[in-house]
Request: fold
Amino acid sequence: MLKDRLGEKIEAWRPRTAALLKDYGEVKVSDVTMAQLIGGMRGVKCLVTDISYLDPEEGIRFRGYTIPEVLAELPKPPGAEMPYVEGHVYLLLTGDLPTKSDVDEVVDEFHRRSQVPQYVWDVLHALPRDTHPMAMFSAALTSMERESEYVKAYSKGLGKMDHWQPTLEDTLTLWARLPQIGATIYRLKYRADTPIEPDRDLDFGANFARMMGIDKPYDDVSRLYFILHSDHESGNVSAHTGHLVASALSDVYYATSAMVNGLAGPLHGLANQEVLRWIQGVMSKMGGEIPTEEEMKEFVWDTLNSGQVIPGFGHAVLRKTDPRYSELRDWCLKHLPDDPIFRYVDMLYQVVPPILEEQGKAKNPWPNVDAQSGVVQWFYGVREYDFYTVLFAIGRSLGVLANIVWDRALGYPIERPKSLTTDMLEELAGIKK
Ligand code: NMX
Ligand code: MLT
Reply:
C-alpha cells in the first residue's frame, strides 16, 4: 500500500532531519548579501526539499532521476509512448520507482476519489464567462476546502507526527479531481459548455485527453506535460507559495489554490500563454508567412526596445537550455516537424539567445519550458492559449503537494523570515549612522 510504504519512508527519514537540527543546527549554509535581499532572494539557500533538485547546468532531477531517466524507467500504459502520471506521483512521494502493481494501486485510488462535487460546477457556472481559466481553477480548488479531512482531524486534536496522514488523504483526493476540473473549465469556456464525463477505466493522462475531447496521442502529450511540469525544486513562486501557505497549517485546498495564483503571473507559468500570444502577434504582422531570420530579429529587438521581456527565455536558476524545453522539442521534431508555429518557435531558439547576450541583461539567454510547451497544445487543437497555464498548474500540483505531505511528515514549522528596513540596510552599508 502506498500509505504504508510512505509511512515507512517517513519513519526512516525523520531521524536524519532531527539529527541535523539537534546536532548541526549552527552549521552555516548560506550568506546573504544586500543584492540578494533586494534582488528577490536569488541564490539564497534557505529551503529544504528532497522531491526534486535543480542544477543550473543540467536542469531538474526528480528524486535523483533526470527527465530522460524518468520517462524511460516509469511504467507505461499498454501501447503508450509516455509513462503513467500515477507512477510519477508514486516516485515523487516515496522516492522509489514503482512497479506496475504500485501504479495500478494509485490509478485505483484516483478513480475511487475522482467524483467532483456538483457545487464546484455551480461555482464555475456562477463566474462571468470571461473569467481567466486560472482564476476559475483557483476558485474551484478553494471551493472544495470544506472537504478537507485534515481540517476535520486537526479540529479533533491531531498529534504533530500524524499531520501527514490526513494531508495525504486530501492530497490524493485533490489530485484525483484535477484533470476533470481542468478539462471541464476548458469545455465550459471554449466548447459551449459541453463537459465530457471521465471513464473510470482510464489513467490520469488518457482521462484528461478524453475529457478535453482530443484523440490520441493527446493522452501521451498530457502524460508528458504533467510529468515535465510537476516540480522545479522549491524556490520558484508556485512551489514556494504552496509550501509557505501550508506552513501555517492551511489545508492543501488553500495551499494549492495559492500556488495556482502564483503560477498565474506572466514571469512564471503564464509565460506559456504569453509565448503563443507573442508568436500570434508576429504571425499577424507577417500575414501568416514565416519571417526570415532578419525579420524575426527585428521583432525580438522591437519587443526588447519597448521594455518588454521575451516570454519563454531566461531563468532565475538555469544557465542552459531547459531540459523540459528539449524534451518537448524532441516531441515536436518527431510528431510535428513541419508545423508553422513550431518553425517559429525553432527560429526563436536560433535568434533570441544571441540577441539577449548582445543586450547583456539576462543572465540566462536560453529558452525555458514555456517557449516550447504551447506549440504542442496548439498543434493538437488547444488554441485558446489563456488555458495553457491551467495545464502547468495540474502538473505543478503533483510536486507541490508531494512536498507538503513531506513538510508535515518532517514537522517543518511555520515559515517566517525576518525583514529589515531601508534605513537599516543603509546603516549596514555604512551610508547612514
Ligand atoms: N527578455 C528580456 N529581458 C530579460 C529576459 C527575457 N526573456 N530575461 C531576463 N531579462 C532581464 C530581466 O528583466 C532583468 O532586467 P532588469 O535588470 O531591467 O530588471 C535582467 O534581464 C536580469 O534578469 P535575470 O537575473 O536574468 O532574470 P531573473 O532571475 O530576474 O528572472 C525570469 C527570471 C524567468 C523571470 C526572466 O528571465 C524573464 O522575465 N523571462 C521571461 C518570462 C518567462 O519566460 N518566464 C517563465 C519562467 C519559467 N517558468 O515557467 O516559470
Ligand atoms: C518553474 O518550473 O517553476 C520555472 O521554471 C521557474 C523556476 O524554477 O524558477
